[in-house]
């Protein structure tokens, strides 16, 4: 995201205000999209950790597994949705981990 922000700043140095707004609009929108997904991932991970802590205090293994199933697992699906969307907008060169689709088809 830093290189995207630098790119937008560079446009301001080169172009007049009206041309800058036209050219930088999509890039600025992309920065907002990426930031929103990162914010949601961090929020959901924090909430999931809190639910996991609560579940870990349960002594009965059956009840603990039910708590994990009903309280912790749903966060994984929500987090994955945001990560999948980030994978679509972040350039392959900048994505530090294997993408989900790459993991599925790696031999």
Short description:
With 107 residues, this protein is an all-alpha fold.
Question: Can you characterise this structure?
Answer:
The protein is mainly alpha-helical. The protein has a single domain (2-104), classed as Up-down Bundle (Four Helix Bundle (Hemerythrin (Met), subunit A)). It is 81% helix and 0% strand. The chain has helices at 2-14, 17-56, 61-89, 100-104. Helix 1 (2-14) packs antiparallel against helix 2. It is elongated. The relative contact order is 0.10.
List the helices and strands and how they pair.
Blueprint: H1 2-14, H2 17-56, H3 61-89, H4 100-104
Percent range of helical residues:
over 70%
Low-pLDDT segments, ≥5 res: none
- Rg over C-alpha atoms, rounded to the nearest angstrom: 20 Å
Main sheet?
A: none
Q: What amount of the residues lies in strands?
A: under 5%
* Structure annotation, total helices: 4
| H-E string | HHHH
Count of domains:
1
In CATH's first tier, which class applies?
Mainly Alpha
Shape: elongated
Nearest-integer average pLDDT: 83
Distance between the termini: 31 Å
CATH topology grouping: Four Helix Bundle (Hemerythrin (Met), subunit A)
Give me some keywords for this one.
single chain; mainly alpha; Four Helix Bundle (Hemerythrin (Met), subunit A)
